[in-house]
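Course exercise 7: structure representation. Students receive a sequence record and must write out the corresponding structure in token form. The form below is the worked example handed out in class, using Cilia- and flagella-associated protein 251 (964 residues). Read each field label carefully; the graders check that inputs and outputs are placed in the correct fields and that the protein name is recorded exactly as given.

STUDENT ID: A-19
EXERCISE PROTEIN: Cilia- and flagella-associated protein 251
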Amino acid sequence: MSTTNGTSTDAETEDTGEQKNTEDNQIEKEVHNEDEDEEEEGRSELYSLREDIADSQVYTATSLSAIPKETRTKTHPLVLDWAYGMNQTLPVLSLQDEDRLVILYICAHVAVMNDHTSNAQHLLQGHCSPITCLCASEDRRWLVTADMGQESLVIIWDAYTGIPVRTLFDCHPEGGVSALALSKDSKYLATVGAGAVQRVCIWNWTDESESPECQVDLSPKYGCQNQLLFNPFNNTQLVSNSSTQVLFYNWERGHLEYSAPEITDKTFNMALGSLSQSIFHYDGVQAFTATSAGNIVLWDKQTQTVSRQPVVRKAVKLVALQKEAITVLTLNDSFIVTGDVNGHIKFYDGNLKLINVYNEFSLDTIRSISFSKEKPSISDLGYPKDCRLDAKPFVIRNFVVSTTHATAVHINAQRNVPQTLLKEHAEPLEAVACHPKQPLVAMGSHSGTIKVWDYKHKEAVCSRVFQTHKQIQCITYDPQGFYLAVGFASGALQIVDACTLQSDGKECLQYSQDSITHLTFSQDSRYLAAADTGKAVTLLRRCKEGTQEVWKYQGRHHSHYKPIQDLLFGVDLDSSQPRLLSLGMDRRLVEYDLQNSGEDGLLILSSERIEQSAVPTCMVWYPPLTPEHFLLTASNLYKMKLFNATSKMCRKTVFGPSYGSPVKKMAILPASKDGDPNSRYMAYITQDKVGIQILPLDGNPHKSFAMICHSTGVSTLACSYDGRYAFTAGGQDCTVFSWELNLASLEASAALGGKDMLPFYNLLEGGRDGQLFREMEEYFYYCQLQNQDLDTMETRLVSTHIPLADVPFLMRALGFYPTEQELEDMQNEVKFSRYAETRNYVTDIDLEEFIKLYVNHRPASGIARQELCNAFQGLGKPDEEGRYTIDRDELLELLQARGEHMTEDDLAECFTNLVGSSGEGASCTESLFESVLPPEISMETFATDILGFSAATQELPQEHGQDL
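STUDENT ANSWER:
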């Protein structure tokens, strides 16, 4: 291969572009004629598709201005209202027409059509995984989005209506889509898979076929191909590139092939740099690739000996355009356009001669450049002059630029004026808080930026960038709305004015080097508490010093030995004084002595273990729906518990929302001013979903609804002061979503689930007609007979209840073996259920109450094999074969000394029942244990021979519950 010097002049480039032989020109004409035929065929198929849907909005819509506003009745309990933020790694596309300035960008798994003219958003929802690439047709009528994840989707949208017109399901099951492109006539769609072995597919999306027209697998040695483009003059040619290799594709009659021309530093004896983007020249023959060294690689076709032979290209020149890395390379009309790391945008002609530069807008690294579909005005009046000697008017289309710092700017080419459309958080956004009295929401990110929005008018109110400490982890308003507390990953804490975001007193408070995870104010705004990753709680108190109010340190306590899950202020009902509680992964609920705490330390008033095996995840004060005051907690085992606020006694356990992951944060919605005061609701988040729950809690699954909010994980939740909106922060996706709550729809959904006991019958295997329900009835009636003496000849008393003392035996008969603590919780739940109203204990239970007790207390899923593995790895030792075993004597000692202690007689009775030994053997416990237990007990022996599990039941069960 011949090489040229990297210092080639523009004149040489021009000569290369002009020197074509007659045979080559004839070939190009043939290719162009074929392309025109295919383009006409594509239009015909599109028109045919439109005729099939002549009655739809897609067919009748005529322009972008026809995007419908959300005036229809909301039919879902949660409706996505607004998206704050953007994915700065993906391009921002201009959908501008004569009337409206509209852009398209990505927020997590949602595509956002932002109408800057009317300050409105149209949200394109359909993906369940993060969107990884997008593109638009040349006329901006069709939009395409694709994601990367399980069961990935490619969706083609109608830009005029926001309606999805075609969906390709799991077209790249190996890992989703990493790049895609539409042909100039919009007929063909090309996709590149994201698997280890990438697959390139060409789809005719206008037909009903579920298979691609053609496909080819790429060699992994060429790197991850993350850029893809059709030749605008020939649908049968494409180009893609990774950071190290450019690939050219040719396809015809269902066959797709590619070539990988060599390109290294040795090709032109100069530093090449990593490859960024590739385009075709507007002549349709040459191609260009930009690099991080500021170079442009020029590709040209090799001479063909046969007219129908596929076009083969090779690198013929390396042009050093600049020193700075080129991050964007695109084509518009007759200009080649570049964007670089300095935020400069440059326009070149087809011979790479510089025409104009935009370098006065103070932008950071350019991520994308997208031009309006509207052609510039015929008149050149008002346009700036270009860089050439004759200084002609530089007439181009308006365009939108996006940067790596999450900024989108619209450039009016005629007036040469930039207009900032978006300026969002460019780093993980972990913190969000709602003002307690105004329609304001504050957001804080790891870039040190706090931004406050008016979510009613969709306007940014104020912002501040913290310079000393950057990573904001959590924020919260005080109940009066005067202060905003900000916690940083450095352990620093700042309290700023809620209106101006400025600090009145000491700029920074720091009492820990550990990251702040929770912040909460007391109801009277006198106290502020902070929890950190050091498992400690710090308390500050607001007091006066002269004429100023300052926050003074009141103490700090390492109150947990595992991470703190939640921190909460409350009010003592007797004294009306503030109460402070913390909840840890160590299963302890700690209350602090605020009255006697000072600079010497934060004192603990009480510390209670509230769970045995479950790990609590969050807590909140239960609304006053009963005469008693309760604290509500959630756990990783999909259970919610109500604890008496004073005694800390567990008074109720219910089966909580189960949507693939446990509840991690809860927020009680304010009572409606116009509605029923007894109708209360709770918002919550799980690992990736946001949900809403009807109160009071009773375990009815139809009273809860959840949907995906951030597919990569949601970090926190906040609710508006009027209870109409919930806000979720996505952390790594740099996005906050605003959700409108439709409580009437939730009530309707709950009503459709059935009244009275029907939802609880449906939680039983087989429902009311199943075997489990029949067994419940039989056991229940047997308990009644037994309590009236089985052998009596007297007339029996008809009853619908059994004594509360029989509940443990009935639970075990049904295959649920609760611990003694769980049995005590059940007894207390029934015993005190009417105590506040009647001052009397409940001593019996009917069948319906028992069914509710059973479905709410039983485990959400069965015993998993992995649980046994973890137990044996923790308690046992590996044998010669690597299997973990437990010594028989050690196991017996553990059962008698750890956890809920068992006596030797209890153990003997249990093992007698489990292994089926005769009662005589139980008289000598030592010989019994030796006869039924081997000296070394493996997990398989324990599960199969002792517990009686079959090999099939030892498999991991499926996760309980499914998404609504």
